[in-house]
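Run log, item B.
One chain of 878 residues. Sequence copied directly from the ordering sheet:
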Amino acid sequence: MTSSEIRTLYLEFFRERGHTILPSSSLVPHGDPTLLFTTAGMVQIKPFFLGLQKPPGPRLVSCQKCFRTTDVDSVGDNTHLTFFEMLGNFSVGDYFKKEAIAWAWEFVTEYLHLEPERLWASVYLDDDEAFGMWEETGVPAHKIYRFGEKENFWGPAGDSGPCGPCSELHYDLGADKGCGLPTCGPNCECGRFVEIWNLVFTQFDQKPDGTRTPLPKPNIDTGMGLERIVAAVQAKPNVYETDLFAGLTALVGSLAGKRYGQSTEMDRAMRIVAEHGRGMTFLVADGVLPTNEGRGYVLRRILRRASLYGRRVGLTKPFLAKVATAVIDQMGVAYPEIVEHKQLVLDVIEAEERRFMATLETGVGIVDDLVERAIAQGKDTLAGDDVFRLHDTYGFPRELTAEVARERGLGIDNAGFEVALDRQREKGRSAHAFHNNAVDASVAGTCATEFLGYGALSLEAKVIGLRQAGEPVQAATDGSDIDIILDRSPFYGEMGGQVGDLGRISSAGAEIDVRGTLRTGSDVIVHRGHVVRGEVTVGDAVLAQVEESRRWDIARNHTATHLLQAALRGVLGAQVAQRGSFVEPERLRFDFSWMGAVEKDRVGQVERWVNEKIRADLPVTTRLSSYDEAVKAGATALFDEKYGDEVRVITIGTPPVSTELCGGTHVGATGQIGAFLIVSEGSVGTGLRRIEAVTGRAAEELVRARTRTIETIAEQLNATPADVLERLTGTLEDVEKLRRRVSALERQLSASAVETLVQRASPIRGVPAIVTRVDSLSTNALRELGDTLRDRMGDSIAVFATVENQRPMFLVMVSAALTKQGVHAGDIAKRAAMVTGGGGGGKPTMAQAGGKDVAKLDEALAEARRVIEQQLSAGSGA
């Protein structure tokens, strides 16, 4: 059987046994801030087990795409993967151990035709019930192993959620694949036994603090890795020789002019490229784009790792887009989203790979130089500062530096790297998502709040819960900061990129300023407030009032984001997809997928289109619909949003100019937006653009501010506002003429200085070198001077010091041939600048640095000579 046939057979097997087939959810988990990626089939089932959402049925089955970061460094061996598919069947309070075990045995023996004698089972230490059930299916007692919590207790997915003891099926590859010891059995590290199916008997809910409480009803959560079961069915020794990977490794080999199976080292490199090629394709299709943090960093890491290993097999030109195309062709039927986003996937991968290949040209050479220097000095590790400089200055990941060094028998100083990273790392970090998760935990068991804020900004309600410092309280008095939970509320809780409402909650005996509103995953609205008068008590009748003017500012911006997306799709094309938004009273932010720059005239077209629709005063209507009907009717849905059975559809215009699924607040007609002005448009990552804009009162204030600026400039130029541009153009032309004159004079000075400097050259260990102070020249002029000297003197070193804006500046230039002897311009510049209280660095051939104390400039030049002396000495082995 092929992998596609096994995938389909599994889903159909359980569908025939009353299971509802769930489509795979995104690799970007929705509503669970404890997870970086979807790591198991259980992730989308978790809300059903916790009773937060109603499942489409008590029996569910899925083939879930998953991604785990823990195994990145092990990819390339026989079993470990980052991206994989997880087959799983689930019971939400329906069947339990007996059915799960019986169906598992039936499927693998009667449908997949695995030989029963090759199957072994394992159970949790004290799970006699599961032990007996495996015996009933026909598994001999001596082939049922008992293990502790490390091996046979699963979960939760993240730091909290459903978990429980588990039972596993193991496939025996044969005694010839094992260690031969009499103790060899499931979980032996020799690799003879492969776990193919994990049956989790979900009985507990684990809290973030590690405590576990029984679930109201026990559930079943199973997971069978498609790649592993395919290897067993197809009788392959490892996952890379199944039909899931064979075509990809063959493609990599053909591109490199090599054949898979001829070299262990080359095979591993081809496996890594194929595996990471699958992962990057699915990550980009699910909206992950290369960045330097979070999910984007993981994507960037596997893409760069694949590119590096492609280089190991001889692929020196971009090739990963071809691998991604093969992945899409092979898996697009099962996962249509990768076909839908094919162009984005290929554009992002090609752009990022080209950028990294440029980095590689510099980075690999620098790593090689560092390795050579370390070996010459008798060291067995690369310094943490050097590894960090590669990471920070050249974008060369620490992991790749480690791999290059490892091939030469060296390690890297990870502790030193972390110290350097901590020095530079931005101190502030957003913990909002995890904060919301803590709120979820603190209000567990509280009834959902009825949200009535679409139609009312003021209403009567009842206090059903109070939290102070995360703990339930019955009352709160004047001066207290509290969380208030009402049975119903007009306050919109922060969600979907829209900030929460502010306002006031009052009763006969108290007044509370609402300073923030959150919505938890269980639909409880938490009003963050401060008691300004009296005492509020659980059970109080209150009047909840939203700050009206602020709510309307938010609504204007939110409706404008819908118009903006429609405008972008109209001007740039249907391939534009929303990748995030943020709506607050003062402004809106909209992120969208787009490769390359967006021309200014097209940004202008977008702005004009939106304003035309505002002037048309189009109606904004809302209706409820099933998700399938809404999407079929053309509604736009967010790529990573998880929608319920019933969705809210926002339509603008008749016929519609925009139709989107959205839970936010909106104006009743576009004319209420007033005006729409784009403040900025630019790149925020590979394939990701951002527009910031203002509407309504903020747009009016922006126009006023810009008008005041023009009027002030006009006064300074003694001109009318209409003449400002013409007068400024003339002034700028005069400035440009002056700049060219200064540049010409600098070149004259530079030329005349060359002869003098050549005479002042003072060799260091036989190498021509100029280490001197040069006043009255800019750093640009110094570069030209250095180039001229290099032409005159051949392989040489130049260290120039000058003073700009009352601060010392250093420029170091080293001939390429001398860098191979250990001379590094960046290190020289950095050490010299440090003497004057500054810092800097750069490439081995050229570097620039700045300092603070001009009085120490001569001392800094002396330090530069000492560093050059040390580098040449180390390079020669003296």
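Observations after the first pass:
- The chain is about 40% helix and 25% strand.
- The CA atoms of residues 116 and 167 lie 17 Å apart.
Flagged for discussion on Thursday.
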